[in-house]
Amino acid sequence: MWLDLLAALGGVVLVALSLRDIFLAVIPRASNRTWRASGTLSRVGWPLWKRIAANLNEHGRRDEFLSLFAPFNLFVQIGIWITLLILGFGGIFYALRDHLHPHPNGPGAIYFAGVTLLTIGFGDIVPGNGLTRLVALMTGATGVTIIAVLASFLLTMLAAFNRREEFVVRLSARAGAPPSGIGLLMFCAETKSPQELSAFLREAESWCVSTLDQTLAYPQIALFRSAHDNHSWMSSLGAVLDAAAITVTTVDAPYAQAEARALLGAARHLLSDLANYYMLPHAPGERIDEVQFGLACDRLEGAGYTLHDRHEAFAAFSRIRHFYSGHLEQMARWLASDVTVWLAEPSANELAHPMHVR
Asked: Most exposed among 138, 232, 246, 271, judged by the fewest C-beta atoms under 10 Å?
């Protein structure tokens, strides 16, 4: 009697916790620090995975190994959800075993829950009264619903990943691989079109907003890595942030000021929310010294940009970069991603044909 009651109660709790975790994982909503089994798996498993990857000497093998974690973690989560549902319904059926024919033992009740949840239905065990039939019907309906929801979830994740990576590839064509903010500005100078910079900054702002919404709704997306060498969505974020900060503080480009400020706001919001979700402490980021800044200014002037006073521009740029560089580097370390390149090598086109922006 007490054993049956305990089995039924434990089964109901397992089913409720599993459905809650699935709901929180697949329904688009802002993520918070509410405890979730799936979120705990990522937070615990990813550091262990990175530790194993650190022992691999070859960079290509290490990056390939790191890229396996996100899909592996996703399918493990799905397996855990289904297993917990089977165990939960198994506990309920064990409490109702006297109304199942033939009467199953513990493993038999779990087996019946599994074939019912997955709608296999061999018919070797059948419910014998109204209550067990109702529970069996609910189990099958739950299984069908969960399979449909998870299929939609996987397709949504894939679409979100593709949208994020499309911009990463487009940026690499303009800012190099790995990308840099200076590289993006140099490309825009080579086009001899002021509208190119403002248009791309506007596109980058849209990408940041989209990435923020997708990553907060589905935090697993952050762990999916680019399939291309020297490409990383985190280094791309750093490159567009640097480009926007330079546009605001250093380059005399009134046609792109509004877009650059909007991009800075959206990108810093993205970094701050992700750092809060992963509970990463804020730490000082890499400081760009005035010599490095001067080298970048030399290249920008050589391309035809009109610059503000360098000393004042450096002070303003350092203040703005201080607000995002710490979170950016913390996130890059957490994701085992490439750090943003500050000053890319000059392109062959830039060396041979310096362009001017008016």
From this structure: 138
DSSP labels for 221-277?
A: GGGPPPSSTT--HHHHHHHHHHHHHHHHHTB--GGGHHHHHHHHHHHHHHHHHHHHH
User: pLDDT tens digits for 103-127?
Assistant: 889 999 999 999 999 988 788 889 9
Preceding amide of 102 cis, omega within 30: yes
Strands 100-101 and 126-127: antiparallel
Phi-psi category of residue 347: left, alpha or beta, with phi > 0 → left and psi -120 to 50 → alpha: beta
What does the alpha-carbon distance between residue 210 and residue 161 come to, in Å, rounded to a whole number? 11
Whether residue 58 is predicted with pLDDT greater than 90 in this model: the reply is no
By the 8 A CB rule, do 331 and 277 touch? Answer: no
Looking at the predicted structure, is the pLDDT value of residue 328 above 80? yes
With CA atoms as reference, report the closest residue to 89 among 24, 129, 140, 127.
Answer: 140
pLDDT tens figures, 275-287: 887 788 777 767 7
Q: Which two tokens stand for residue 140?
A: 């099958």
Most confident of the following: 22-31, 165-174, 188-197: 165-174
Q: Which residues contact 164 (CB under 8 A, 6 or more apart)?
A: 207, 210, 211, 214, 221, 233
Q: Could you tell me the maximum CA-CA distance found in the chain, to the nearest angstrom?
A: 87
CA dist 326 and 320 (Å) reads 11
42 token code pair: 């990522």
